[in-house]
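Thought: the user asked what Malonyl-[acyl-carrier protein] O-methyltransferase looks like in 3D. I have the sequence; next I should run the structure tool and report back without guessing.
Action: structure_tool
Action Input:
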Amino acid sequence: MNDFHLDRERVRRNFGRAARSYEKHDALQREVQQSLLERLDVYLETPTHVLDVGAGTGRGTALLKQRYAKAEVIAVDLALPMLREAKAHSGWLKPFRRVCAEATALPFPDHSVDVLHSSLCFQWIDDLAALFGECARVLKPGGLLAFTTFGPDTLKELRAAWAAADGHSHVSRFLDMHDIGDAMLNAGLRDPVLDVERYMLTYSEPRKLLEELRGLGATHADAARERHLTGKTHYRAMLAAYEAMRVEGRIPATWEVVTAHAWGPPPGQSRRMAGGGEMASFSVDSLRGSRRR
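Observation:
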């Protein structure tokens, strides 16, 4: 399903370096975050434990704490500098915890989370089986997973401009909604619902978009990327190709956003295995109980 791989350490470094500049460039991220918060209306219970995975600078985590004031809300991010910045959003009246960890190895017990929220983080994870397997593991039965991630049309103009300049990969690729939905089902998550929305941002020149990407930490992280510096000739050719795409005097950039939610599986819910077949798990206590006479 997934024919490319991300350089995980590069992703960590990119976001760590962008921690202090992130909120100067996150207008789209704030818009998407607000939309995701509205998605949480499908959860009608009162949660006690809420995770914000890929919390970044914690702006969204603070909004979750406002929404669920009595819950323990935890910001999780793989980049420690991001979590240090997040401290500014964790007020003394409504504080939240901060934990440095990866989404594919969450340091929380099985079935301990009521709401797992993640806004524009999952596109930086290439092992979807591990990702959604962890989501299914930590969610309580009937707990809510709600997330946004970028789809494959994101930055298609920049990708086309680079393709006109040389044959190398310069822009990270993102997975299709159908691949994401299949991975959620394979992990045993229940009743997934996915939607796609496209945002069009415009810039005065291509360099402004590139500056924004660097400021966000959202730069190329494919493991197969070229490791040498891009020559000035190819860079100028890319800029010229992008300039030819101007619409009404502005440089366009498409952002395809997938929004999804699903529910934590009940105990014993089977999940599909990579090699075929299905596997179900049960607690030891439930197995012991089945043998009582």
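Thought: the tool returned a structure. Summarizing for the user.
Final Answer: Structure for Malonyl-[acyl-carrier protein] O-methyltransferase predicted. The CA atoms of residues 75 and 98 lie 5 Å apart. Strands lie at 49-53, 72-77, 97-100, 113-119, 139-150, 190-203, 251-263, 271-272, 278-279.
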